[in-house]
Amino acid sequence: MAKKFPLLPSQPQRVCWGCDLYCPSESMRCGNGSVRTPHPSELFGEDWALGLLPETTASQPPVPQPAPEPVA
């Protein structure tokens, strides 16, 4: 089972983010190469996950969509 991916880790530069092992950047066990894979927040900024997460608000329940008409 895959580990939950942290959205905003406190010190992402300490870990290789290339696989589920999350190895320290100085001793990678997975054979991912000699360079660690950076966390997306290091590449795209702290708001990198805004487009990935569904936008829901507690005050507005989801509106059901009508079913499409059957094609004859």
State the main characteristics.
1 helix, 7% helix, 72 residues, little secondary structure, elongated
Order of helices and strands: H
Q: Helicity, in percent? A: under 10%
List how many beta strands DSSP finds. Answer: 0
Main β-sheet description: none
Helix-strand makeup class: little secondary structure
The gross shape turns out to be elongated
Radius of gyration: 19 Å
Question: Low-confidence stretches at least 5 residues in length (pLDDT < 50)?
Answer: none
How many helix segments?
Answer: 1
**What percent of residues are in strands?**
under 5%
Give the overall pLDDT as a whole number: 77
How far do the termini sit from each other? Answer: 45 Å
